[in-house]
Write a structure and sequence with these properties.
Order of helices and strands: EHEHEHHEHEEHEHEEHHEEHH
Number of domains: 2
CATH superfamily of the largest domain: Isopropylmalate Dehydrogenase
Shape: globular
Strand order of the largest sheet: 3-2-1-4-11-10-5-6-9-7-8
CATH architecture of the largest domain: 3-Layer(aba) Sandwich
Radius of gyration: 21 Å
CATH topology of the largest domain: Isopropylmalate Dehydrogenase
Number of strands: 11
Number of helices: 11
Structural class: alpha/beta
Low-confidence stretches: 345-354
Helix content: 40-55%
Largest sheet: 11 strands, mixed
């Protein structure tokens, strides 16, 4: 523990071999993150012979970054069920195990999502009161940020699991962004109570009935409600959530590319760049998907952060920053405390029986 006046040091374990651009983008991302976060230390899990030249090239301080060697790593097309049985010496497994064993406060990987999920669940175990972990991240909106989950871990979800996701997302919003009572919405095909699948309507009824919950349930949210800022947390199943996320990211990239193309079409448009450039740069920074890379597997007894597989160095650095902030805010302790409270609330309300089973 840091002494008074000293900065708390936080160690993050990194799956250095996971991702489309690994290990070069991973090491460069580590270099960027170390320069931004003076309290950060890193353990890189991967092939030492490959990683050492990259570390030297990036001039990384080896006092803050060390390598744990392994020749094995999880490929993007590996089957998660096979990897979890035979991949105990891979860079992914070892980096997760570092969190379990107390060697690191969080793990970051850009590797195979399915493998990372099943390995993290097996290695760190699921938190009491949670049936399944969910992928959770924060996206930009009119009021700064909206927390969304699940973004791809669970294609199908029961009403109970949607309620659990709502609780976890609300705690995430409170712990990281200080939202006292997050405004919660369930993603649906309409705002009317009669619309949607049965599990969504059942989850809405349960959330509406909850008292002393860590959120203010505002009802159903449509896709158009993600950005206006009326919700702090939006809960959905992983199938819909992943489609929504990829659509948002693709739209953002398309719009920025279209603006850039059209500004080059005439001399008058080029002249206008002088006047609108500051606004365009601000817009690019605000909605650049790379600035929001890094999603937490919520519901585990440890912090595991998933980076996009195709993340570049800046995006991977952002995922490390997410893990660092989650560890610094002791989000796991907050989750456990709130889940214990919710379990007491649920046990006293027959209409919610089974929500935390």
């Amino acid at each position: 523990m840091a002494k008074q006046g000293e900065q708390r040091r936080i160690t993050i374990s990194i799956d250095a071999m996971g991702g489309d651009n690994a290990p070069a983008s991973v090491v460069e991302g580590v270099s960027i993150a170390l320069s931004k976060l003076p309290g950060l230390d890193v353990i890189l899990y991967g092939n030492e012979g490959v990683l050492t030249p990259l570390i030297n090239q990036c001039r990384i301080n080896t006092d803050r970054c060390r390598i744990v060697h392994t020749d094995e790593f999880v490929k993007s097309d590996d089957k998660p069920s096979l990897v979890v049985r035979h991949g105990r010496n891979t860079s992914m497994w070892l980096s997760i195990a570092a969190v379990r064993d107390g060697k690191a406060s969080a793990v970051v990987s850009a590797g195979n999502t399915g493998a990372l999920m099943i390995m993290a669940k097996f290695c760190l175990s699921t938190m009491k009161g949670i049936s399944r972990p969910a992928i959770c991240t924060a996206l930009p909106n009119k009021n700064k940020r909206v927390v969304m989950l699940d973004l791809g871990a669970n294609a199908e979800c029961s009403a109970q699991e949607l309620v659990q996701f709502a609780i976890m997302g609300s705690i995430y919003s409170h712990a990281l962004f200080g939202v006292e009572k997050p405004r919660l919405g369930l993603l649906n095909i309409g705002s009317e109570e009669t619309k949607g699948l049965d599990n969504i309507k059942d989850a809405a009824a349960a959330l509406k009935a909850m008292t002393d919950a860590p959120f203010e349930f505002k009802g159903f949210a449509e896709g158009t409600d993600i950005f206006p800022g009326e919700f702090d947390v939006i809960t959905t199943d992983g199938f819909s959530g992943n489609i929504a996320l990829k659509t948002i990211e693709g739209t953002a990239r398309f719009l920025m590319s279209s603006i850039k193309t059209n500004l080059k079409k005439s001399w008058l448009a080029k002249l206008g760049i002088i006047f609108i450039l500051p606004a365009l740069l601000k817009l690019k920074k605000q909605y650049n998907p790379n600035n929001y890379n890094g999603a937490m597997f919520m519901g585990l007894n440890g912090i595991a952060v998933k980076s996009h597989g195709g993340a570049d160095a800046k995006a991977f650095a952002n995922a490390i920053c997410v893990a660092y902030n989650l560890a610094g805010k002791d989000v796991i302790a907050s989750l456990k405390n709130e889940m214990a409270k919710i379990e007491n609330v649920v046990s006293n309300q027959p209409s919610l029986s089974g929500i935390t089973d």
